[in-house]
From TrEMBL:
Keywords: ATP-binding, Biotin, DNA-binding, Ligase, Nucleotide-binding, Repressor, Transcription, Transcription regulation. This is Bifunctional ligase/repressor BirA. It catalyses: biotin + L-lysyl-[protein] + ATP = N(6)-biotinyl-L-lysyl-[protein] + AMP + diphosphate + H(+). It comes from Marinobacter psychrophilus. The lineage of its organism: Bacteria, Pseudomonadati, Pseudomonadota, Gammaproteobacteria, Pseudomonadales. Biotin binds at S90, T91, N92, Q114, R118, G119, R120, K185.
Length: 321
């Protein structure tokens, strides 16, 4: 039996004894105990109430393929090849495999949990089950590899637009593509390019990790937040978020193809968390005041020797303390 079936039963918030669950599902109490242990390992927050049974600490907002597809199709005529999976190594890795098999033009994969979620610069991405969004899309862009310049910044704008549409404003962007709320990271974007270039078409695998319901993550070292922590007055539905994000990313990618990065520059600048702040790069070797991005999407620092443009992927920027 899948952990998801048991969690769905516990989703009423009540305490269920091991015996009642065992009877209901026609398995032994030991089998129930094993599933609970597996669910705990996957990151579900289940309390054991001694002498009484099991209870979910908070309701799980499961992803639902049908709801997401219906929502996306109601606002766009775009056919959607969406897979919603319980567990995957990495949604980016899965989109790469789908593109390599050539089965769909714009594959979209979202998962309840990732066992090998990856972040930028080889960092792992914390992916507890049922809490957050792990979403990847395979975008095909014409114009060769240079056509992809600026795409990751454009995606930051698309994600910020979607979150603000759903009520999370103001949403900030930390160059090159971290999503910030109230001075802490709420999400990140990883863009990976598929090696093959056919007829000038590049496949960009766009992966978004967004913290939604998460309230604890001891493994994350930097300042982080989640939508539930930062905007607790709103009810966050992962299905509504995923649908809005898919639509916003696909629309932004279409607009990027027709007008280029210029169409997004001012939207990016208005959300720049580094603007006018004292920041450093290259482990402190380079220090200056944030000036925003130039026409190519490089970040400009005003140093005592003049303005220096920092290239995406070259180095990372951080606040000088
Ligand atoms: C970052 O380091 O800020 C980028 C994090 C990107 C994480 C997402 S989660 C969905 C997709 N699958 C992955 O393995 N990574 C990206």
């Amino acid at each position: 039996m899948k952990a998801k079936v048991l969690i769905t039963r516990l989703n009423d918030g009540k305490i269920h004894s091991g015996q009642s669950l065992a009877t209901e599902f026609g398995v032994s109490r030991t089998a129930i105990w094993k599933i609970i242990q597996r669910a705990l390992k996957e990151g579900f927050n289940i309390r054991t109430v001694r002498g009484h049974g099991y209870q979910l600490a908070s309701p799980v907002d499961f992803l639902d393929q049908e709801i997401i597809v219906k929502n996306v199709e109601s606002v766009s005529s775009r056919p959607l090849a969406l897979s919603v999976v319980d567990e995957i190594d990495s949604t980016n890795a899965e989109v790469m495999r789908l593109l390599a098999r050539g089965e769909c033009v714009t594959p979209v994969v979202t998962a309840e949990t990732q066992t090998a979620g990856r972040g930028r610069r080889g960092q792992p991405w914390c992916s507890p089950a049922g809490e957050n969004i792990y979403l990847s899309m395979g975008l095909s862009l014409s114009g060769g590899f240079s056509a992809v310049d600026g795409l990751s910044l454009v995606l930051g704008v698309a994600v910020a637009d979607a979150l603000e549409y759903l009520g999370a404003a103001p949403v900030g962007l930390k160059w090159p593509n971290d999503i910030f709320i109230d001075g802490a990271k709420v999400g990140g974007i990883l863009v990976e390019l598929q090696g093959e270039l056919q007829d000038g078409v590049v496949h960009a695998i766009v992966g978004l990790g967004l913290n939604v319901h998460m309230t604890a993550a001891p493994a994350i070292e930097q300042a982080w937040t989640s939508l539930a922590l930062a905007r607790p007055q709103l009810t966050w539905s992962r299905n509504a978020l995923v649908s809005t994000l898919i639509t916003s990313i696909a629309d932004a990618s279409d607009k990027f193809q027709s007008v280029g990065f210029a169409g997004f520059r001012s939207s990016w600048q208005s959300r720049d968390v580094f603007f006018s702040r004292h920041i450093m790069a290259r482990d402190g070797e380079l220090q200056g005041v944030g000036q925003g991005i130039d026409h190519s999407g490089n970040y400009v620092l005003r140093t005592i020797e003049g303005d220096v443009a920092v290239r995406s992927g070259e180095i990372s920027l951080r606040f000088a303390s």
